Fold DUF190 domain-containing protein.
Amino acid sequence: MNQENLQQGVHLYFYCHSRAKHDGMLLSEWLLEQARAHGLGGGSIFRAIAGFGRHGVLHEEQFFELADDLPVRIEFLLREEQAELLLQLVRRAGVDATYAYSPASFAVLGGH
């Protein structure tokens, strides 16, 4: 690994249900839009095939029920100050979501 380009930051994950909304938008899309609008690094949304949260309700993808309200994870690799900014935006907006925050080392490979 090329240590010269290795950055220290955080991996910020948000967890919610795929149908969760905030300000009339899907919460997952709202989170990505907030990060983009504030010039923060990239983010991605991942949908689970099954899961349960703090309320103990199991949601799972089934053959005849593919549109169920499945859990999603929205994640970002950010510098610490960027992660704190995004968390402040989410708190101020009164968003109901769970998040995880962990140290990360990351770099971009290639010339792009």
